[in-house]
Specification:
The chain has 587 residues and is an all-alpha fold. The chain has a domain of 385 residues. Helix content is 67%, strand content 1%. Strands 1-2 form a two-stranded antiparallel sheet. It is elongated.
Length: 587
């Protein structure tokens, strides 16, 4: 019933498109490495590639299998995500019931997990398949741990499932700490002679030591995930985003997730990082968190579910709370997928305890729970609708947040793709006018996107002003110089275009090739040929110059010469050979 109910409510996602401006394109929709489904080259890519600053081969294998089965029809990709979320719901129920023996309480927790609107992003966004897979293997690892034999020193099955979870998404780094919570409650492996939860130093030390294989895996995978994200530039260095900003944001985010759990309205695909941190807001959040923690500790023996649920929430959010800042968001709905289980457990068991003492309230309790689940189901259905496509998603984000440069930037990209240039320009200017968050430079993307949109409607002088501002932020970004040169070339200022491009912080050969590319785009073929030849003269091994020169010759109708240039490019770079084989060999 839980599986079917979850699938029914989330069935609305089956008719949504890919979100092309929000990772779906990078993961699947425009990923050339997955375009043909499973192959040897695809497997090599899955095992080695870093996608969106992450290395998660299990997730990428899942996407490749989807492409093999459904092609690039988003229906099939959404179908798999919906089925995975439904399976996670059923697994959560089975785990809780097996550990506690409480059927209806376990079912209610699973239903809250299934239907809460905060979990829409993890299901409706194809790129968040990693959430669903990681949680699936996480649950299986919990099950393997709970039923393992006492003599299993190496914990083969729990470790195997944990590795698969971490290879789907590194969120499971808190797994051994959550196992200790499970040992306390509901597994009651720290119980005293009276059967009440009680932790002794000796028992705790034994519980930690027995989990050494799990801790070892966590240390290795955590270090690997951090290095991958750092090398990809996804983590904000501490000298850019100061520690006190991170602490402020993390404290407020903990409280905000609780607020959205109780009142799941005005949800956004992206929450901008605050530009200021009012001290009253941070203090209020801190008082709330400390107050709940004190209550949980006060009831640690009488209500073990409370401390377990609360610490589950606090601990499982640690990897994504922002102390190690990945990306520019303040928080994200998808980060709550696992942590909210702890809140649901504490709430459901607490309500049950209150109702159990007053049998007259039982029918009222049933009615209340039914009403809550109905409201959540309706809210989730509505939220799924906002994920219909990129335009509806980012317009909704603008409606419920402020200073959301990312939403404007993605609408700039969306409207540019539809050639709706006026709307694109409007959102481009809005994006660059919003001040960057503390510790982050203004992104170069909206400047480039806005400049290209302005060029499309013949407003090159305006585009140049935008690009000059971008150059002040990113003096080493070669794309800025390319766009400035393109604007000047379109205005007929050939010499000025060349002079602007020659300011690029690049090699002479790269500069000559860039001038050739700008000339080719402006259909100045004679000028393009001149600069491609000069680039090759300066650096005879520069394969990209041969490649671009070949394309220029092809447009000019000089096919034999173009094939010779394609062959030379393929000779210098074997990766080009396969891609250009048809151009090299065609008569």
């Amino acid at each position: 019933m839980l599986f079917a109910m979850t699938a029914l409510v989330f069935s609305r996602a089956l008719f949504n498109d890919f979100i092309y401006s929000y990772d779906d394109d990078e993961y699947v929709a425009r990923n050339p490495n997955l375009a043909e489904g499973i192959s040897l080259s695809c497997i090599k890519y899955i095992l080695t590639a870093q996608v969106a600053a992450n290395w998660h081969p299990v997730t990428m294998l899942s996407h490749a299998l989807d492409v093999q089965l459904f092609g690039l029809n988003p229906f099939g990709h959404h179908l798999v995500s919906v089925l995975l979320h439904s399976a996670n719901t059923a697994l959560l129920f089975l785990l809780l019931r097996g550990a506690t023996g409480a059927t209806w309480r376990s079912a209610i927790v699973a239903a809250l997990f299934a239907l809460h609107p905060l979990h829409v992003q993890s299901v409706a966004m194809v790129a968040q398949r990693k959430d669903l897979l990681s949680t699936l293997f996480w649950f299986l690892a919990f099950y393997a741990y709970a039923v393992r034999k006492p003599g299993d020193r190496f914990m083969l099955w729990p470790v195997s499932c944990l590795v698969l979870s971490l290879l789907s998404k590194p969120m499971a780094v808190t797994f051994p700490f959550l196992l200790l919570l499970m040992d306390y409650w509901p597994l009651k492996r720290f119980a005293n002679a009276d059967g009440l939860p009680s932790i002794t130093r000796v028992a705790l030390r034994k519980a930690v030591i027995e989990k050494w294989p799990i801790f070892l895996i966590i240390v290795i995978m955590s270090a690997l995930a951090f290095l991958v994200q750092r090398d990809a530039g996804a983590t904000a260095p501490i000298d850019q985003l100061k520690l006190h900003y991170r602490v402020h944001n993390a404290t407020v985010a903990y409280a905000e997730y609780l607020r959205l759990t109780l009142w799941p309205f005005r949800l956004s695909a992206y929450y901008p990082y605050p530009q200021t941190f009012p001290i009253w807001k941070t203090l209020a959040a801190l008082v709330l968190l400390i107050g709940i923690t004190v209550m949980a500790l006060w009831n640690v023996t009488r209500r073990p579910y409370f401390i377990t649920g609360w610490l589950w929430y606090l601990i499982s959010l640690v990897p994504v709370i922002g102390i190690v800042q990945v990306g520019t968001q303040a928080m994200a709905d998808r980060y709550s997928y696992i942590p909210l289980i702890g809140i649901f457990v504490a709430a459901v068991w607490g309500v049950h305890e209150s109702v159990a003492k007053k049998p007259a309230l039982r029918q009222t309790g049933v009615a209340f729970v039914s009403l809550v689940l109905l409201i959540l189901a309706v809210r989730t259905w509505v939220e799924i609708g906002y994920w219909q496509n990129a335009e509806t998603l980012w317009k909704r984000a603008l409606a419920v947040t402020t200073n959301n440069s990312t939403a404007h930037r993605n609408l700039l990209s969306t409207y540019s793709g539809k050639e709706q240039w006026d709307a694109a320009i409007e959102h481009g200017y809005a994006a660059i006018r919003i001040s960057p968050t503390p510790g982050h430079k203004q992104s170069v993307d909206p400047y480039l996107g806005l400049a290209r949109a302005l060029q499309q409607v013949g407003r090159e002088p305006e585009a140049i002003k935008v690009l000059e501002e971008a150059k002040s932020f990113y003096p080493d970004n070669l794309a800025v110089y390319f766009e400035i040169g393109s604007c000047l070339m379109a205005l007929g200022n050939t010499q000025e275009a060349e002079n602007a491009i020659r300011q690029m912080p690049a090699s002479p050969s790269a500069i000559e090739e860039t001038i050739g590319n700008v000339s080719l785009n402006a259909r100045r073929f004679d000028l393009a040929e001149k600069h491609y030849k000069e680039s090759i003269r300066i650096e005879p091994e520069r394969y990209s110059a041969y490649l671009n020169y070949a394309q220029c010759l092809e447009v000019m109708g000089r096919s034999a010469e173009a094939r010779a240039m394609y062959s030379k490019a393929a000779e210098l770079n074997p990766k080009v050979a396969a891609r250009m084989q048809n151009r090299i060999t065609q008569p």
